[in-house]
Amino acid sequence: MSSAALLEREAPSALTMERLGDTNELIVAQSTSQCCRCACFQPSINWVINESNNFTPGTNPHDLPHSGWVHEESTWCMRTMSCFLPGCRKTKYVQHSGSVPDSILEENKRWFRCQNKDKTAGLSEEERNKDVIATHEKGQTCGQCCWCPPYLETKHADGRIAGKTQYVCDVCLFVPKFDILDANGERKYRIRPDTCVLGLCVMCRCGGPKGKCCSVPFVVRHPMTMEELTTSASRDSNAQVTQLWSGWANELFMKKNAYHVCFPANATEDEKLTLIGSSILLDIVLFEQDDQGGG
Fold it and tell me: Residue 268: CB partners within 8 Å, gap ≥ 6?
């Protein structure tokens, strides 16, 4: 099915907090092209949210109907610094319900963009504040280090804390992992890939369906036992955050990342909201600058 045909589908209902409680899985995908993203040419990275279970081969997950979107607000200095120190910048991601505005959909018309404002050019104040359901906020940290590890705090639109995603530093330095905390600071989940060599190395999974033919799922686990948690998602048995293969054109040129988020079977609305933020933090820390051009 062509991209045009996909866009002509009837748009899904807006992803409000009430609907999020009944949602088992989402695709969280970058809408901002990462091509030619270097030095001071570091535009805000915006996202779209699709209520999908992976995607059909031959199509692009970024072209699926959207029921929510996220825009980034960060200063030029912080975005420029992230080219050399990924995961360090202070930033805020504002999550909206409903359809994506044209200013976000049309943001990739120019290859080199030295954005001097804290948000995407063309995004109006009305759009900036419309149908906000949450913010995912990150203070300035020192990247993947043990002294001041990166985190993302998720808040409701009224400022109430929903939860927090925290990068974990331990003796297995080559295995990235994150803890999910609730509003009271209690550990609810551990997100970590499968490992090999006595837990020292990351192990990929091959032979998965559609965009997961060969991937490294960040499995959602019990924080103490590390047991993999089940999900009610349609195509996966374990709750996870997995980067999707989105076609040669996107992988080689646009370099926009997409993640399939499968929520644990008994996750609350706050926990699901926090896990959306977890997928964004995972991208910031591990994949945003992995080839100095984004992606």
Answer: 21
Is 114 in contact with 32 (CB distance < 8 Å)?
no
Check if the beta carbon of residue 140 is closer than 8 Å to that of residue 90: yes
Q: For the chain, what is the largest distance between any 2 Cα atoms, rounded to a whole number of angstroms?
A: 52
Give the residue ranges of the chain where pLDDT is below 70. Answer: 1-11, 54-59, 108-113, 143-144, 207-213, 289-295
**Residues whose CB falls within 8 Å of the CB of residue 95, separated by 6 or more in sequence, listed in order:** 49, 68, 69, 70, 132, 133, 134, 135, 136, 273, 276
DSSP annotation string for 138-187: E----SS-SSS--EEEEEETTS-EEEEEEE---S-TTS--EEEEETTS-E
241 vs 161: CA distance, rounded Å: 22
Q: How wide is the angle at C-alpha 34 spanned by C-alphas 242 and 108, nearest 5°?
A: 120
With CA atoms as reference, report the closest residue to 27 among 273, 221, 218, 262: 262
The Cα 154–Cα 176 span in angstroms is 20
